[in-house]
Amino acid sequence: MATVSCLLGVFGYMLIIVTETAMCIIIGIGSVGIYSAFASIFIKIYIAEVTLDSQRKILSGGYGFWIRIGLFVAYFAGIWLPFRWLAVLGIIQICLFCFLIIINPHSPVWYVQQSLDDKAKSTLLYLHGSEFDADTEIEKIKGKTLSSKISWNESFRALKDWKVLKPIIILSLLAVLKELGGHEAMVAFSSHILENQQAMDPKVASLFYPIFLIIGAIVCILIMNYCKLKWLMITASIFQAISHISMAIYYLVSEHYLHCNTEYSQLCHTLAFWPISNLALYAFSFGFGWGLVHYSLIGIVFTKHKALSFGIVGVFGNTTSFAVIYIFFYLLQNIGGFFTFIMLSFNYLFAIGYIYLFINI
């Protein structure tokens, strides 16, 4: 499956590079999307299966950190490179991903499920060192995965069990809220304001976002082991609330000066840095908060139904939110930046749901 998804990704990027028709570009984007969805689920499951409980926080936080590094590279490269050269970078990334899949061992959980205890033991020793008590860990894995070799039909039937269905529903709804109030909305809002004021190149301004995403992810990784996760999420939510309130004040103040004349040009130039500072604060809290989210998705391991669970969460969250965003932007595009600000308010609901998840699951 990993190889097939990588081939689809390469095929998609090749179409984007060589084609001149919109339909072929759409097909290429779809192929890349299939690869990206598989890679995202695969990485989360692999981290959950190869790590010990004590390692999971730092590695799942690190996963979120490198996503933000990728965002920064994409934003930065997009200033100078046309989209076809960005597709070339995408092919390089897929080849690297495929190579790392080949040289890394299967997870010990998978070997135990196949009754290959010797290979599971050698994998554990490879991952954690020769002094590691592999036999004890294998017994723990067997206790967790004793009944995990089940068919897809059994997995779907198991969704009737509320204990299985409840965390999947909660995570799916959180994924929708995350996308509805995500970074695309904040970047679009800031770009809308900057373009109207003509005070700063929106492409340059957008670099503030991934930079502070990275800073937020780093801070999250550094302090994750020393604080309760629900309090960390509350802290991230407070930062977001401050940025939203400040952005609302900015919008009300600057609304009268978006079409600036000479008399107000200096005021507009000064106000232009307000959304940038808010973008930095919001990005910090978003990177901080999503370091925790990646941990929850990886740490709450569905031993029986993990692949199905991750798939439902990802597909439902992304497709539903994108449909809502595009439909509403199409219908209400004339109100521009204010509607984008309304979209950002979904982060409050997301934060409440996320705290509920940690308390009850």
TrEMBL record:
Highest taxon of source: Eukaryota
Gene Ontology cellular component list: membrane
Annotated keywords: Membrane, Sugar transport, Transmembrane, Transmembrane helix, Transport
InterPro entries assigned to the protein according to its UniProt record, in alphabetical order: MFS_sugar_transport-like, MFS_trans_sf, MFS_Trehalose_Transporter
Gene Ontology MF annotations: transmembrane transporter activity
Cellular localisation: Membrane
Xref: Gene3D superfamilies: MFS general substrate transporter like domains (1.20.1250.20)
PANTHER family in the cross-refs: GH07001P-RELATED, PTHR48021
Protein name: Solute carrier family 2, facilitated glucose transporter member 8
Species: Oopsacas minuta
